[in-house]
From TrEMBL:
GO biological process, one term: rRNA processing
Superkingdom of source: Eukaryota
GO molecular function terms listed in the Swiss-Prot or TrEMBL record: methyltransferase activity
InterPro entries named in the record: rRNA_ssu_MeTfrase_G (IPR003682), SAM-dependent_MTases_sf (IPR029063)
UniProt keyword annotation of Secreted present: no
Signal peptide (from-to): none
HAMAP family with a match to the protein in the record: 16SrRNA_methyltr_G
UniProt keyword list: Cytoplasm, Methyltransferase, rRNA processing, S-adenosyl-L-methionine, Transferase
UniProt-listed PANTHER family: S-ADENOSYL-L-METHIONINE-DEPENDENT METHYLTRANSFERASES SUPERFAMILY PROTEIN
Name of the featured protein: Ribosomal RNA small subunit methyltransferase G
One Pfam family from the record: GidB
Length: 290
């Protein structure tokens, strides 16, 4: 049986949404550049029971999935010592603030997709725009192994971490794409092909709409993970969402146990094609929001 190791994709490399690579076990991965080498400490290896018990969504995962989350958290905290992946430096807080919040958007995403897209959500093609450290994309890929998850990230060093994390966890349903959203949205093989686009902690809604919706197929969803009171942000984004060929469906309160307060998922339905002029050139959406 042939086993393939992934490479970070760029828009200059062939990519098929239907073809996702398998990874070698972590012990067989190519050496990571020296500046990214870490030794796993005993403290890091011992994942705290407190963190696990506080996260109800985590407990719904299988034992294998829980172990994959465990490996992800360990890798994130180790690599965070050398590069800026997250401001969170504590295991419990990573579980509560990142893992729990990422798992919490699955139920509203599934519910909205079944209600408004008239299709099964067992085999979604999903893109995580501005994935950063892989949140929420990697957590969604663990929890929903039938989904094909593309992690879109423009920074090379973060893509190196993402490739490492995917290999360590042994995920076969993840593709890493190093590119800006504004560029990817103008590429024919990526434009309007994803069932769902998600984004967390990337930008305000009117900017996110231009990043994400050109990638979503007509009839698909755009889901933005936000804080407890996004109504004003949603109102400001109405024009941008409409220009992208979509409409705001609902603001869902998600069941999160994070101490950082109530979380929401803003869900938009792509009910028309995005005009060819969008997304605009890199940097323009953030500088001149619609």
């Amino acid at each position: 049986m042939l086993i393939w190791r992934s490479k970070i994709s760029t828009v200059n490399s062939p990519f098929s949404l239907g073809t996702f690579v398998k990874h070698l076990p972590a012990s067989n991965l190519n050496p990571i550049p020296s500046k990214f080498n870490f030794k796993t400490s005993r403290k890091t290896q011992s994942f705290t029971a407190t963190a696990i018990l506080r996260t109800s969504h985590f407990q719904t995962l299988t034992q294998q999935q829980q172990q994959q989350v465990n490996l992800y958290v360990h890798s994130l905290l180790q690599w965070n010592q050398k590069m800026n992946l997250t401001a969170v430096k504590d295991e419990n807080e990573v579980m509560e603030r990142h893992v729990e919040d990422s798992l919490a958007i699955i139920e509203p995403l599934r519910s909205s997709y079944l209600s408004h897209c008239q299709s099964s959500c067992e085999n979604l093609n999903l893109v995580d725009v501005g994935s950063g450290a892989g949140l929420p994309g990697l957590i969604l890929a663990i929890a929903c192994p039938g989904w094909k998850v593309a992690l879109l990230e423009s920074m090379q060093k973060r893509c190196v971490f993402l490739e490492h994390a995917v290999g360590v966890m042994g995920l076969s349903n993840v593709q890493i794409i190093r590119e800006r959203a504004e560029n990817l949205g103008q590429k024919p093989r990526f434009r309007e092909v994803f069932d769902v686009a998600v984004a967390r902690a990337v930008a305000e809604m009117r900017v996110l709409a231009e990043y994400c919706l050109p990638l979503v197929r007509v009839g698909g969803l755009f889901v933005a993970a936000k804080g407890h009171d996004p109504q004003e942000e949603v109102k400001r984004a109405e024009r941008a969402v409409n220009l992208m060929g979509a409409s705001a469906l609902q603001i869902c309160t998600v069941e999160s146990h994070s101490k950082h307060g109530q979380r929401t998922a803003i869900i938009c339905l792509k009910d028309g094609t995005t005009p060819k002029r969008y997304p605009r050139n890199p940097g323009t959406p953030a500088k001149l929001p619609l």
